[in-house]
């Protein structure tokens, strides 16, 4: 009876925690966005200036740079993905793995690398001057496009590589037996996959570029290169025009909601094709022209992606001697934001994932919970920040809560990635070990330790590392709230760049890079060290650690 009551109390507490996580997510995303929405309508009803010519220019530039960035990234990813899919060379797996590096790279560090290569004093400018050509000016639309393509070319390439991997090996064998080569092979094999994957990749990159703030802040070239998010920042931070900021936030929210709906509609997972899932061996592209094309795509992509990263590392190492004293307190603030954001994001993701599993007997309810976790795609961070600012202003000084607000919004922004990693792991653990755990009567911590944790620990560590790394490198919401004497490390790097203190900015950016990747690796290694096998090794001979009998399905790796 006592055990039954304890199990019932634990189930009740878990259910309440799951519903609390759902309420927190809805309040953080839709609640804050709704506050901005109400103030935007209030500004219209109150006779405030409805829409300015500068706002129209900001909207036009936002759409133009996002469309061009998405088009260039998607088009350039086609030959790169094709070369990686059909070539086998030394270091190929490492090259594919490094395509995820720009995702973890702090935006301001990548911008510093882009400036070091393409700026007026960069490598390309020096080469142009040596040839008697004018030095390029990257500030404005060219710089914004360069930075966005640097971030999004790897994303589009990974999407297309997944599409190639989904094509059954039997189809490639049949194409080889039919003698398909060149254009005929591309039309029968590559083009159907690209026709399904490219629209979703384009829409996703378009949405990412619309909500990009740090790139426009650092590389925008004045009024003609201002995005909607940059206009919101200027209206709130410089003019303190709450009505205009709320109105711009309303426009940004409507645009992002429409783009998010379009992205979800175009990114539906294609049903798996029947096949033996054997290893794909491609023998196409053996001609000289095909080999030269693939080599050119690989070399060009390697230089385009590798040079800015290498330049940022080299300049950062040289600039460590000029590291300002305020860099260490700023690093401490970034660390607090990262840890707080990762903790909150994991709590929300686990709560939503658990609730979705509880509601799977009602598919519509489970899908609604998953959609709530993806709500950050529709509510951009600046709109959430604007809504929280308006909600907190009558109660307290929002600038005094800069770090907690930044951590909370970054947790919401990382939630879609965390939920996408944690929910499938929980479903797999329940499908594989749930029936056996029920037969053994495992409940509570015993069930968590034996049936759930072995499958959950790696995705949980990866999700926490991603959330911490993204929050540590954030240069968005913190720019709205941070006081002049309390910047985080990304904001300090941006201020040093704005003051043309390039050596100090490079040294601080290297510290930021080490912090972001260090947090990611620390969470991943922590998840590995908490495995049952590692715990048994540590406790061997001391009567400590996990007992082998607690792991269900011993001999199998969940």
UniProtKB/TrEMBL annotation:
GO terms for cellular component: plasma membrane. InterPro entries: MetI-like, MetI-like_sf. Keywords: Cell membrane, Membrane, Transmembrane, Transmembrane helix, Transport. Residues 59-261, 331-523 form the ABC transmembrane type-1 domain. One of its GO terms (biological process) is transmembrane transport. It comes from Oceanicella actignis. It is a multi-pass membrane protein. This is Thiamine transport system permease protein. It is found in: Cell membrane. Gene3D superfamilies: MetI-like (1.10.3720.10). The chain crosses the membrane at residues 66-84, 96-118, 138-161, 198-222, 242-267, 292-314, 334-359, 371-392, 398-423, 460-484, 504-527. Its main location: membrane.
